[in-house]
Structures are given as structure tokens and as C-alpha cells.
Design goal:
The protein is an alpha+beta fold and 461 residues long. The protein is 28% helix and 23% strand. Strand 8 and strand 9 form a beta hairpin. The longest helix has 15 residues.
């Protein structure tokens, strides 16, 4: 693999720079160290060159330059990927952060979004029209990475995964060609990008179906960690039998000093963070079984949807140390609940946590081969997250996550939501796509036979 600085002729780089509306960032530039930062501060990669793209033409030039010079290529959208797969060492990073636009069409409630947007930019624009697109749980996440991996969030039970609301994309392929993909054009690629990650090209724009949602009733309820087994047992039945207007992910967590009351600070809890999109007049009766469980804290009320979507942004800013492990689950049996009590009682740092996101409702009605997301019958996407501001605690949070994962993996459905995975090897990637993996390989062979796009959860040709 060539090194950009040492091995590529200065004239070639000069020609490349002249083709760009955007700019190049080199290791020698004063902005380089800041440019190479991503959300997860545990990631410390040193690319040979950044191409800061501002339009699809810049992406075409960048893909061609990387391919012609045999460079390792990484694609960075929002930079939130836990494994740091928006960066690579020595190679070329195609940075999409300059490709931003949000165009709302109120005649059919569709929204066209740039490949470099982050979700809070989209939420701000759509909210003005009383609309929302199903997305994740932290609004500083990039649209591209979340969408291409699947997209689990507050609206999953009501309106499905983010990929279930993707109508069209425009993308640059490995040969530098620019294509539109939708249900009528390049249908094999359209299938592949709805969960298959960045394996098939660089998406420069997405068009989504939005839904009439302006305000929701949402917020957290908390119980002492000692009650986690009881609450999980109740929750498993309650959430999957509830109206699809109600969602809520269950978690084990430590309550930080802000913005919660002092009597909760630094104590461990079982929590559920709720989101209700239905008739507010029906909420009190619907929510009564939750309050009957006597939570020690309940802060659930009506709010703009973007306020719920961004509720945890301040607690989880860029620059923290992160380590992730994940699995799909179908049941929360006694053995599973016992492990959640064990590891929830030994959370190592105040920001480390475990989440289980319910996958029933609209998300479960899509066929298991209709998109690459193979686990439509799973009940939960689970994730163990070690988080801390101090690099000295990196080993501590990593070991806790790995131990949590190893204790519960035998009870899992097998694979994991790819956006929650670190670099865990090819067998893990195959397990996460299950019966859809071979079809993804065929499409990869057609559009990227040389595996130009391989800095990802890789589908190997």
C-alpha cells in the first residue's frame, strides 16, 4: 500500500487538488490533528490525506484518485462510528462533512439530505414542518453511517428502521460513476445499501419518507439497579404488547450529576427512556402500569421531538473514550436478567451503560430478505457501551464491555447491529447478515470487485 506523502508525485496531488471545490488536508498542516479527530477519542488513526469534499463531483475525483493510486480509502460522514471506520492509517479519507443540505417537500413529506449532514440538522429542518424521520438516539450522529447500517431509534416500533424510510440515494461507485438508486433504478444496489453499510459506494444524498410528528411524550423512568430483573421481566411483555405509538429502550446506567436530582447522583439504576407519538389524552391510562411499578424518578412529559432526540447529546459530547459490544436478543429469561443485574451493579464509570432497543412493531413487519437487515424477528438490539473521558480508563471500560458481552452472547440470536460493532472479524460480520450475506457478496462482486471500499464492516468480494 502506497504512502501518500512519500510515494505519490507532488504533481499528481496538485492535479487532484485542482479538481476539487473542497480542499486537501495533509499531515503537515496545522489543522491536521483537529481534522483527524472523531467522536470516539479511543481512535487514534493517522491518514495520509483528507479530501474535504463539498459536492458529488469532489467525491468522484477523490474515489478516482484513491483507486488509481492504489490507496486505502475510508469514508467519513458524521465520524460517530465506534470502531473509527471513518478513518484509516496512511490512506485517503473522503470526508463528506461539506456536503450538506436538507430539502423538505411538503407535497409528499419527503426529505432530501446531503451525505455529510448530521441528524440534528435534519431534525431542525423537518420539525418546522411538523415532520420527523426515524433515526437514532443521539442527534450528533451522521445521517450516512446510521442509515447505511440500519437505523434503530425512538420511532422504530411506529415507523420502522431508518432504512425502511429510505426512498432513494445518489452514490459514487468504485469506478467513479455516479448513480441513482431506488425501487426502480439500480434495484440491487438499493437493496444492498439499506443495511449493508458503506461497502458499495459513497452516498452523496439520501431521500427519506418523513412522518407527521411534531411533539412526543417522552423522558426517563428509573428504578434501583436491584430491581432490574423484575423490571426487565415486566418490560419484555409490556413493550411488545403495547401500542406501536409507544417505544422505550431499557438500560442499566449510572446517573450523572447533571441534570438529575442530587439524591440520584452516581447511583446505579435500571432505566427506561420513553417515546410516545399517539393521542396525548390516552397517555395517562397507557402509562399507568409504568407508574404502578413505583419508579424512584419519572420525568416524562410532552416535548418537541428534536428535544427527545437530542436529550443525551450534552452527556455524550465528542472526545470521550468509547468501546462497544452488541448482540440481538429474542428473550430476557432469568439467566439473561441475572447477568444484567451482575454487570449493571458493576458499571465501571459514570457514563458506561447497557441499552436494549425493542424491534417489534413496524420494524418487524418487513421481511428478513427485503433488506440486508436479517434479524427482523429479533426482539431487541442490545449494546454494552463503555464510556469515559479519561484515556487511563480505556482498558477498564473495554474489559467490562467484553465481559458483559461474553456472559450474554450465549443467550443471543447470533449477530449484532453493525452500527454497534467494533472491528470483530469476518465471522462476526457474516453472523450479522446471516442468510443475506451471500447476496451482498454477489452485489459487491458486481460493483466493487477489488474491494476499494473495505474500511467498514466488510463484505468481502
Amino acid at each position: 500500500m502506497k504512502n501518500l506523502v512519500k510515494d505519490i508525485a507532488p504533481h499528481s496531488i496538485k492535479v487532484f487538488a485542482s479538481q476539487l471545490t473542497g480542499s486537501l488536508v495533509f499531515p503537515s498542516d496545522t489543522t491536521y490533528d483537529n481534522t483527524r479527530k472523531v467522536y470516539n477519542a479511543m481512535i487514534d488513526k493517522r491518514p495520509g490525506l483528507f479530501a474535504m469534499c463539498e459536492n458529488a463531483e469532489d467525491v468522484i475525483s477523490s474515489v478516482n484518485f484513491g483507486r488509481e493510486n492504489n490507496l486505502l480509502i475510508a469514508i467519513r460522514g458524521g465520524g460517530h462510528n465506534g470502531a473509527g471506520l471513518g478513518l484509516c492509517n496512511d490512506g485517503l479519507v473522503i470526508d463528506l462533512s461539506g456536503i450538506k443540505s436538507v430539502e423538505v417537500n411538503t407535497s409528499n413529506n419527503t426529505v432530501r439530505v446531503g451525505g455529510g449532514n448530521i441528524w440534528n440538522e435534519v431534525d431542525t429542518a423537518t420539525h418546522k414542518f411538523g415532520l420527523a424521520i426515524p433515526a437514532g438516539m443521539v442527534s450528533t450522529t451522521g445521517v450516512g453511517g446510521l442509515t447505511l447500517g440500519g437505523g434503530v431509534g425512538y420511532l422504530t416500533r411506529k415507523h420502522g428502521l431508518t432504512i425502511d424510510n429510505l426512498l432513494e440515494a445518489q452514490m459514487v461507485l468504485a469506478d467513479g460513476s455516479f448513480v441513482t438508486v431506488n425501487k426502480n433504478e439500480n434495484t440491487d444496489l438499493f437493496w444492498a445499501i439499506r443495511g449493508g453499510g458503506g461497502n458499495f459506494g459513497v452516498v452523496t444524498s439520501f431521500t427519506f419518507q418523513a412522518h407527521p410528528i411534531k411533539t412526543v411524550i417522552g423522558g426517563p423512568t428509573l428504578w434501583p439497579i436491584e430491581r432490574v430483573e423484575e423490571i426487565m421481566d415486566w418490560y419484555h411483555t409490556f413493550i411488545h404488547e403495547a401500542t406501536e405509538n409507544l417505544n422505550g429502550f431499557i438500560a442499566t446506567m449510572v446517573i450523572p450529576e447533571s441534570p438529575f436530582p442530587a439524591e440520584l447522583h452516581n447511583k446505579k439504576f435500571c432505566g427506561i427512556v420513553w417515546c410516545y407519538t399517539g393521542n396525548p389524552e390516552e397517555f395517562t391510562e397507557l402509562f399507568k402500569p409504568v407508574l404502578d411499578l413505583n419508579p424512584v424518578f419519572a420525568h416524562v412529559g410532552e416535548m418537541p421531538y428534536p428535544s427527545l432526540q437530542s436529550m443525551f447529546d450534552g452527556l455524550l459530547p465528542p472526545g470521550l473514550q468509547w468501546y462497544w459490544r452488541a448482540d440481538f436478543f429474542n428473550e430476557l429469561g432469568s439467566e439473561v436478567r441475572a447477568q444484567h443485574l451482575k454487570f449493571g451493579s458493576t458499571i465501571p464509570t459514570p457514563l458506561s451503560q447497557m441499552h436494549l432497543y425493542p424491534l417489534s412493531g413496524a420494524a418487524s413487519r418487513v421481511g428478513s430478505t427485503d433488506t440486508p437487515w436479517a434479524y427482523r424477528d429479533a426482539k431487541y438490539a442490545g449494546v454494552y457501551i463503555g464510556v469515559d473521558p479519561n484515556a487511563k480508563n480505556a482498558a477498564t471500560i473495554t474489559n467490562w464491555c467484553k465481559s458483559y458481552y461474553e456472559a450474554l452472547h450465549p443467550y443471543s440470536a447470533g449477530g449484532a447491529y453493525s452500527n454497534f460493532m467494533m472491528e470483530e472479524g469476518q465471522d462476526r460480520v457474516k453472523a450479522s447478515y446471516k442468510h443475506n450475506y451471500d447476496r451482498l457478496v454477489k452485489i459487491k462482486n458486481t460493483y466493487d470487485p477489488n474491494n476499494i471500499f473495505r474500511v467498514n464492516q466488510n463484505i468481502k468480494p
